[in-house]
Amino acid sequence: MHVSDLVTPALIVEARTLDANLATMAKALPGSRLRPHVKAHKCTALARRQAELGSRGFTCATIREMEGMAAAGLGDDLLLANEVVDARRLGALDARVTVAVDSSETIAAAASGGVREVLIDVNVGLPRCGCKPDDAQRLAELARDSGLEVRGVMGYEGHLMMVEDPAERAQRVAESMAELSSAHEKVGGDIVSAGGTGTFDCNFAATEIQAGSYALMDTSYDQLGLPFEPALFILATVVSVSDKFAVADCGLKSLGMDHGNPRIEDAKVWFCSDEHVTFAPDSPAETPATPVRVGSRIRVVPAHVDPTIAYHERMHIVSGEEVIDSWPVDLRGW
Amino acid sequence: MHVSDLVTPALIVEARTLDANLATMAKALPGSRLRPHVKAHKCTALARRQAELGSRGFTCATIREMEGMAAAGLGDDLLLANEVVDARRLGALDARVTVAVDSSETIAAAASGGVREVLIDVNVGLPRCGCKPDDAQRLAELARDSGLEVRGVMGYEGHLMMVEDPAERAQRVAESMAELSSAHEKVGGDIVSAGGTGTFDCNFAATEIQAGSYALMDTSYDQLGLPFEPALFILATVVSVSDKFAVADCGLKSLGMDHGNPRIEDAKVWFCSDEHVTFAPDSPAETPATPVRVGSRIRVVPAHVDPTIAYHERMHIVSGEEVIDSWPVDLRGW
Questions:
Q1: A109 to chain B: closest CA residue
Q2: What global pTM score does this model have?
Q3: Which of B183, B61, B209, B62 is nearest to B120 (CA)?
Q4: Over the stretch A229-263, which tens digit does the pLDDT of each residue have?
Q5: Which domains does chain A have, with CATH numbers?
Q6: Any chain A CB within 8 A of the CB of B237?
Q7: Which residue of A lies nearest to B127 if distances are taken between CA atoms?
Q8: How many of the other CB atoms lie within 10 Å of CB of B45?
Q9: Is A304 on the interface with B (CB under 8 A)?
């Protein structure tokens, strides 16, 4: 299939860039050093590629993601890195399931739901889930008393992913991880799970890194000088052109907008509507090779990849002008 | 089914509020005066309710919406109020299909795709699609020469929906619609299609109003003093509580974020992550009846309903604590 045959808006992934990103990370964090986070792509076909490169364990954000990974035969070691208050669907899975817990309620939910293994989730600075570091030991004891195997700890330093200066980022990650390590000493277990794409090369305390964005990358991560390149775009069709602006069929329902407007090369984005992006192409004199006409195909670069992908049913893998594969975004929903 | 049995995050719709919104609009704009826009809810079950209240014609934003409406038996008079450069899927529908055109290319696409009827889309001030008013006559002639039936004109005054002062809004709508009327005089046809929820009661030039948001409503529209009430929420479960904040399982992948953060009653929203909202409940002393605990269910009010709904597979219709119906959001995708 030719790229021009795709119905727009369409998620497209540059095969070569994806391959390079996956290979770079697999080399930096081989085998169990990487526990790829599937929330970033929600796609078992892409997860299978990560598995082929050595990752047997995966990180998930939702129960649906856990179910989909298990159904796809990728359930060797699945971690739900979020808390749940009803774990029965997890307990029913034909997979090795570990779930994060940070309270007596979530421990009780894991035990009564039939889950066997947990990590104690420790707050390492991001105001989200996780217990206080000095409460980790109590929770680990409670979990063991409830019949659960405690495999170790996790703590997500998400507030540090975007620290621009690498040295400062490394320093602050070390401080944040010191809290996790101190909790780990008291909790025990083999696992210290943490990190993300922004800290994959400066988090030395974690036994495994939960990176996800590296595969397809994000505009914001792109500013950190990481060895990964943006691989995902939205193909859109120009449907209307006036003297000052043009309009393409990619809008609020095909773009995660929490990081702001998308980018379009050689153009200024004015605003997005439900199904449209209005943009002003740079002067034709500067881009004589690519005039924008009704029917032109353009590439829109989403500001935030994860919530963008969650709007789409499929991602199309392209090489040049050929669509070489089409993968269902099969881990959507809850 | 009980509301507490729903898997969260879940779209919930208050039956009574929805019914009141639908009835109010059907009374204000009976029969063909209203052409409800399905993009707001993407749900044929909800569209069927609108049809039962007298609307035989509907407005769509995508080809998929047109297909879904036709398949649901709601194809008496479907308007695709956006331009397309490939109309073959529209031409294949078993339904009365009208499509917006604003250029020679989109006219050619309609004709060659097998569509029979068009509206000339006129730009009435919103920088998006639509021809210049003084180009409408030429395009109408071109369409007729191409064998198409020109049913009239459309023009969306979307830039005026949020003008706060009702008198100023009415005045500016009248000015905007004067351009559409002048184009209509030269184009001919029975239809002048325009308007939306924000101008449903002050657009007197249109023969039909394309309102959609009124059914479920939006936070932003809610500030205009319209006779419609918010009917849609997201039910979320609190999964973690600390001394300063709490976290519920509703995040960037269940919320349209282009209008900013959602609201939570009796709480301040701090930020959203992919699957979480972090919020600070107001002091317990002020809300003794509803302490936030792990496992509590809360209602999250999205800032923008349309792109929120597009993330969800179903909307659950509730009355009190009972789920009285569950409707697929079956018009998603493209």
A1: B295
A2: 0.95
A3: B183
A4: 999 999 999 999 999 999 999 999 999 999 999 99
A5: 3-11+229-328 (2.40.37.20), 16-216 (3.20.20.10)
A6: yes
A7: A278
A8: 17
A9: yes
